Amino acid sequence: MSRNPDRPLSPHLSVYKWGPHMLVSILHRVTGGGLATIGAAALVWWLAAAAAGPDAYRSFTGWATSWFGILVAVGLSWAFFQHLLSGLRHLVLDMGAGFELNTNKFWANMTLVGSAVLTAVLWAVILWGKL
Amino acid sequence: MTTRMESAIAQVRGLGSAREGGHHWWMERMTSIGLFLLYLWFGASLLRLGSLNYGTVREWLGDPWAAVPMLLLVYTTFLHLRDGLKVAIEDYVHDEGNRFFVLLILNFAAIAAGALAIFSILRIAFAAGGGGAAGPA
Lengths: 131, 137
What we know:
Largest sheet of chain A: none
CATH architecture of chain A: Up-down Bundle
Strand content of chain A: under 5%
Distance between the termini of chain B: 76 Å
Oligomer: heterodimer
Largest interface: A-B, 27 and 28 residues
Order of helices and strands of chain B: HHHHH
CATH architecture of chain B: Up-down Bundle
Number of helices of chain B: 5
Shape of chain B: elongated
Strand content of chain B: under 5%
């Protein structure tokens, strides 16, 4: 294919200056992909193990409470909260609200802060609470 | 060059990457709101249980008030993840043949995994339903 080098290229990701809205948009897809694969697999494993019997369930909890299982669970919980808050932001944007530059940037940042705080609170409750 | 009789909009309608967009977009929003409510319930329920021991989880899912929302949660989760992954595949898998194949795998996997999860919930729920007039356990 021949291209006149004087003509501009259509802009792609690499030409934009990174901002929170861009990061949050990409994270929405990444966290969604992670939840849809690893998260769904964990959910199905948990339910199927509970249905299969005590031995299968012991095998599940053995994995889930290992350091690797906890690492995955922390990652999934953060992905869940990030996707949840980002999704709520999208519902507002779908109504045509929140596109002013400062408002948009503020709520994009708030999803990042919110998901970090919610993840920390959840694991504080799990590790130091009654669970 | 033949003259086309359609209006400009008619010539491009349905040619987006998804071929049909509106219904899919709407379903993604509907399921997301449903999941928001269902996962609030799920999170609150697990925190109230206070333990994920085998016995605790079996007893919890043996109650229809937990089993039915859990069925809705699983069903809606798999609808939503299928809609979401479909968009990602349509954006990144450009070759028509590959795209067809990957979407086929996605549908098979989502339906199979969802069916296994639903069967598991029903198995626990029906195993627990032996009391009262329901007959021998």
